[in-house]
Design a protein that fits this description.
The protein is mostly beta strands and 234 residues long. 0% of the residues lie in helices and 54% in strands. The strands form four sheets. Strands 3, 4, 5, 6, 7, 8 and 9 form a seven-stranded antiparallel beta sheet that branches. The protein is flat.
Length: 234
């Protein structure tokens, strides 16, 4: 696993994958290798995307061609149907994820973390961008008793550095079996500031990897949501 430059201050927190989409007008799309229900993605074989690859020197963006194969969807298909889609790269190695957008260029990418870090056991995650810039990813939530059950509600996922505080997302209610996860942290847009890929699904049977980029942030914000892909499970 890549060297983890993320320090963790433990307390207790809150918190399948994917439609290949960007936010309105962002011009950015994100996609992952793997299996999808047919209506979850619009990507087709032969499209050229950027892939974020793990290399012997770290991580880099490079162009690659995707392949989308029709497969049996064991949840939805009957008879001889093949409505499922399996996404992969025609490269010899598979990327951590795919990206589309004019913002991205070939070359090395500073990566602080790549993996699957559940926020279920943390109230604060400290991310050291460099020797002087330290970001804090915070979870603010309520635990209440309803009908004899403890539920998590009014959950805010916050990012701050120095005096700037940015709300990344909000959950009215949260399934404790499906907390948000940090999937990647680093500098995709090469502006020297933190970018994040976070699964913000609020249910154990959903995945919603969402890309936040610093270079697209509006005034007073640290990052902006630029692409998200949503996938249901069984």
């Amino acid at each position: 696993m890549n060297k983890l430059l993320i320090g963790l201050m433990i307390v207790v927190l809150f918190c399948g994958f994917q439609t290949d989409s960007g936010t309105e007008d962002s011009g950015i799309r994100i996609l992952f290798t793997g299996q999808y229900h047919g209506n979850e993605i619009q990507a087709v074989s032969g499209e050229e995307w950027f892939g974020l690859f793990s290399t012997s020197d770290g991580h880099s963006l490079d162009k690659c061609v995707i392949q989308v194969e029709f497969t049996v969807d064991i949840i939805l298909d009957t008879g001889n149907q093949k409505t499922g889609k399996f996404v992969s790269s025609l490269s010899n190695t598979q990327p951590i994820f795919f990206l589309k957008g004019d913002l991205f260029k070939r070359g090395s990418i500073k990566t602080l973390f790549s993996g699957d870090l559940s926020l279920a056991n943390f109230d604060v995650v400290t991310i050291n961008m460099n020797d002087s810039d330290r970001y804090y990813l915070r979870n603010v939530k309520k635990k209440v008793i309803e009908d004899g059950h403890t539920i998590t509600k009014d959950v805010f996922l916050l990012l701050n550095i120095n005096a700037t505080l940015d709300t990344l997302t909000y959950f009215r209610f949260l399934d404790d079996d499906g907390p948000p996860k940090i999937l990647w942290a680093g500098d995709l847009d090469r502006d020297g500031k933190l970018d994040l890929l976070i699964d913000i699904a609020n249910h154990y049977n959903l995945r919603e990897p969402t890309l936040f980029l610093s270079s697209q942030a509006k005034e007073g914000k640290l990052v902006e949501k630029v692409a998200s892909i949503r996938k249901g499970g069984c």
